[in-house]
């Protein structure tokens, strides 16, 4: 999710589309939050590991 967000963010910045930039940054933030929760051992969505 982080890689997809980063890809959309870069494409949005290069092309100049604000929508892609916004979606990319939201995906990066959600991916980082899920990654941190999974790394601390908390269950995310009923699963101990988020892959």
Topology readout:
Blueprint: H1 2-15, H2 18-39
Helix pairs in contact: 1-2
Q: What tags apply to this protein structure?
A:
51 residues; mainly alpha; 2 helices; rod-shaped; DUF4337 domain-containing protein; transmembrane
Overview of the molecule:
It comes from Streptomyces cyaneofuscatus. The protein has 51 residues and is mostly helical. The chain has one domain. The protein is 71% helix and 0% strand. It has two helices and no strands. Helix 1 packs antiparallel against helix 2. The longest helix is centred in the middle third of the chain and has 22 residues. The model has no long low-confidence stretch (mean pLDDT 85).
Strand count, sense and barrel status of the largest sheet are: none
Q: Cα distance, first to last residue? A: 9 Å
Order of helices and strands: HH
Mean pLDDT: 85
Q: What would the principal axes of the Cα set say about the shape?
A: rod-shaped
Based on CA atoms alone, the radius of gyration comes out at 13 Å
- Stretches where pLDDT is under 50 for at least 5 consecutive residues are none
Total strands: 0
The structural domain count equals 1
- Determine the strand fraction and express it as a percent band: under 5%
* Class of secondary structure makeup: mainly alpha
What percent of residues adopt helix (DSSP H or I)?
Answer: over 70%
Annotation field: number of helices: 2
How would you concisely characterize the structure shown here?
The chain contains two helices and no strands. By secondary structure, the protein is mainly alpha-helical. It has one domain (2-39).
